[in-house]
Amino acid sequence: FVSSYSLNNSIIPYDTWWGIIVWLLFFAVTIFFTSYILRNSEKILYKLRNIRKNQTKNKWIMTDITYKKERIIVIGGGASGLFAAYGALLANKDVILLEKNEKLGKKIYITGKGRCNLSNYILPQEFINNVVVNQKFLMGAINVFSPYDTYSFFENNGLSLKVERGNRVFPTSDKASDVTKTLEKTILSMGATIRLNTEVKNILFEDGKILGVLLSSGEKLYSDSVIVCTGGKSYPTTGSTGDGYAFAKNVGHTIIPLKPALVGLELLGEDYQEMQGLTLKNVRLSALCNDKTLF
Fold first, then answer.
1. Tens of pLDDT along 145-199?
2. Which residue, among 237, 249, 290, has the nearest Cα to 110 in the 3D structure?
3. Which helix (H) or strand (E) covers residue 70, if one does?
4. CB atoms within 10 A of CB 193
5. Beta-bridge mates of residue 227
6. Residue 135, CB half-sphere, CA atoms under 13 Å: how many?
7. Residues 75-125: pLDDT tens digits?
8. Among residues 215, 230, 181, 243, which one has the least CA distance to residue 77?
9. Distance (Å, rounded) from C-alpha 75 to C-alpha 100?
10. Using CA atoms, how far apart are residues 90 and 191, in angstroms rounded to an integer?
C-alpha cells in the first residue's frame, strides 16, 4: 500500500515526506543545543572538569578552580557589617566577614538598654523629618530600604517584633542578642564565611586597585572589594577603636579631625552628686552660662 501527499500540485511519497520532517527536527535540535553550548561553554566546562565525588558524604560537590564568584571582604561584624554582608550575598557575591572581637554585634548587645531598639515603624519621610543634620545623606538609603523593610526583614527571618510607645521597634523577647543571632543565622544560611578573633591590620592596595586585606597575624586575604564597617571611635571596649579611619587614610581618603558627638557632662561642685544614677524619662536638658542659654 502506497499513499501520497499533494503539495503545490506535486506528488511527494508518504515515506519521503516523513523523512523530511525528521531531518528538519534533527537540524532544529542540533542548532538549539549548539547555541546553548556556545552560550554556556564556561559553566559546562567548569562542571565537567571540576566536579568531584565527596566519598564521605556521598554527594557531588564543585571545586572553585576555573569559575568563581566575585569575592567581597567585610571588615567588622556589627550591625552595618552584617547588613553589608547580607546585601553582597543578595548580589550573589562570595562574602567573608572579619570580626576582631570574640563575638558579633557587641554594640548591638548594649543598645536599647539591652533590648535593641532596632527601628521605628514609620514612613521614610517621617523618619527623614526627625534627622537633625544632613537629611539628604540618608534619603537615598531610607527610600530603598525603609523602616517597614527593616521590620519585614527580621520578621521574615524568624525574629518576632513588637512596636512600643513612639513607634519604637523591639524584639518580642526583649533580648538584643536575638537581633544579632538573626543577622548571623541569615548570612550563614546564604553562604557567608565568618571569622571571629580576626583583626585586620591594613587594606592591600596597589595602583588604585583593592587587592584584599592584611591580617594582624600576617595572613593575606585577597578579594575583589573590601567594605569597611568598623564603626567610629566612640566605644573602644566594643571594638570601635577608629581602625576604619586609618584604613581609609591609607588608601587615599581625606580624614577630617575627629570630634566627639555624644558625650557625658561633667559638672562642677557637689550639688549634683546626689543625682548620680538617677534615670528620667521624656526630659529635655538646657545649658546656661551667665544667664545665656547655650542650647
1. 999 999 999 999 999 999 999 999 999 999 999 999 999 999 999 999 999 999 9
2. 237
3. none
4. 14
5. 74
6. 9
7. 999 999 999 999 999 999 999 999 999 999 999 999 888 999 999 999 999
8. 230
9. 9
10. 10
Query: Residue 129 corresponds to which amino acid?
Result: N
Among the listed ranges 41-55, 132-146, 229-243, which one has the minimum average pLDDT value? 41-55
CA distance from start to end of the chain: 107
C-alpha cell of residue 75: 571588615
User: CB of 42 within 8 A of CB of 65?
Assistant: no
Nearest to 240 by CA among 76, 118, 123, 56: 76
How many Cβ atoms sit within 10 Å of the Cβ of residue 247?
20
How distant is the alpha carbon of residue 78 from its chain centre? 11
The amino acid at residue 95 is: V
> What is the C-alpha to C-alpha distance for residues 170 and 177, in angstroms, rounded to an integer?
12
CB 73, CB 81: distance < 8 Å: no
Q: Find residue 171's DSSP bridge partners.
A: 161
69, 87, 70, 91: which is closest to 79 by C-alpha?
87
Cβ 154 vs Cβ 182: under 8 Å: yes
* 228/245 Cα distance (integer angstroms): 9
Q: Cβ neighbours of residue 53 under 8 Å, at least 6 residues apart?
A: 60
**Is 225:75 a contact under the CB 8 Å cutoff?**
no
Strands 193-195, 209-215: pairing kind = unpaired
Q: How far apart are CA 71 and CA 193, in angstroms?
A: 11
Give the length of the chain.
295
Which grid cell sits at 33?
A: 543545543
Cell of 162: 513588637
CB contact set of 24 (below 8 Å; sequence gap of 6+):
none
142 neighbors 124 (Cβ within 8 angstroms): yes
Residue pair 71/222 in contact by the 8 Å Cβ criterion? yes
